[in-house]
Amino acid sequence: MELTSAQEPHGAHGAHVLIRPVPPLSPNSSIRRAVDLLRGAGSASLAIVDARGTYVGAVRSSALAAAATEPSFDLNGPVSSLMEVGVQPARVTGGPGDGAAVLAATAETSSVVVVDASDRYVGIAYLADQLAPADLAHRPIGAGGMATPRGVYLTTGSARGGSGNWAIYSTGLLLGAALGISHGLVGLGAWAAERATAWPWFSLWLSVEAPRSSEVQWLLVQFAVAPIFLLLLRALPLAGYHGAEHKVINAMDQGEPLELDVVRRMSRVHVRCGTNLIAGLGIFVVVTQALSAIRPPGLADADGALIGGALAWLLYKRVGPLLQRWFTTREPSDHQLRAAISAANDLMRAGYLAPAAPPTQLRRLWCMGAPQTMAGVVTGIAAVEACYFTLRALLQ
Question: Do 45 and 190 have their domain in common?
Answer without folding.
Answer: no
